[in-house]
Amino acid sequence: MKRILTGDRTTGKLHLGHYVGSLKNRVALQEQYETFILLADIQALTTHFENPKLINSSIYDVAIDNLSVGLNPEKVTFIQQSLIPSIAELTVFYSMLTTVNSLRHNPTIKTEMKQYGFKDVTYGFLGYPVSQAADITFCSAQLVPVGDDQLPHLEQARKIVRRFNALYMDETSAIVEPEALLSEVPRLIGLDGNSKMGKSLGNAIYLSDDAEVVRDKVRKAVTDTNRISIADKGNPDNCVVSVYHKIFNSDQYDNICEMCKNAQIGCATCKNELTISINQLLSPIREKRCYFESNKALVKEIILEGSNRANLIGNETIARVKNAMHLSL
Ligand code: TRP
Ligand code: SF4
Predict the structure, then answer these.
(1) What predicted TM-score, i.e. pTM, was given to this entire model?
(2) Which one-letter DSSP state was computed for residue 145?
(3) What integer pLDDT is reported at residue 185 of this predicted model?
(4) Residue of 239, 256, 276 with the most ligand 2 atoms within 8 Å of its CB, for mutation
(5) What is the third-level CATH fold of 209-289?
(6) Domain boundaries, the chain
């Protein structure tokens, strides 16, 4: 079985955008690949260093989000990034081969700097793609399931690995050059019509939201603004709710669009249908969440055990690397 590694920054709970964009896919991938899930708490520090308590509780939240959507702890290795010294060590070695300019020109770094409103940037933030290269390679992951926003990081990682191998490693000891595993998944827009569902945008439905909260949030979702009364014909192409129907209630999507265009369904009813579909999806997830929430010790054990397993692999990688770099006496 090939090994895959992917991860989430531990800066808060995960939402439906994460579910549609990556978690759902992970659940399928775990059957085909040896799956490593990284709880990226160090990467979380690059933007949230002033809020370490949030990062700590998010380690649990993100692990539970992953577990409750159906990642199987018997099969999947959960890793807490800060427990893996080999990631930190590789980050330092890789940093020698990475120019500041190449990081400054990384499109995702640029976008995020704007998003966070950074005028200047910390060394840690600018360098997080280097640390991400270490995340992927410490355990020789061959494939990285990612969305397109992470592609620049993967390209940077591949470049670092090629340079590193050419400089220090021979064919038998080479660091594995990872490849992207791109999946065709929709990007979920926010309830407010913003192109992205995001924590900081306040337009998200969380996997941990209860049924009433979902109902409330859907009720406030932006609809076709030209449709003022129920007698007006609507345009589903200008409506967030229809986009969600397509994803969460796909069987009824065509039907709902037709009814909307012919003023045969009111927005309140339409939203109600959507609420039912989303709650149907979330209901089994909530049940599992409840189980893990009341068994935090178990969650901790899953993370610690996974991290131990990962360290056996990472320590071996570092021994090999130090030897090749002539750092062992
Ligand atoms: N940067 C990723 C994100 O924001 C999270 C992440 C950290 C990651 N380390 C990783 C993803 C390694 C893939 C592989 O979603
Ligand atoms: Fe949107 Fe549904 Fe209202 Fe049409 S009926 S505008 S799809 S909420």
Answers:
(1) 0.95
(2) E
(3) 81
(4) 239
(5) Tyrosyl-Transfer RNA Synthetase (1.10.240)
(6) 3-188+296-324, 209-289
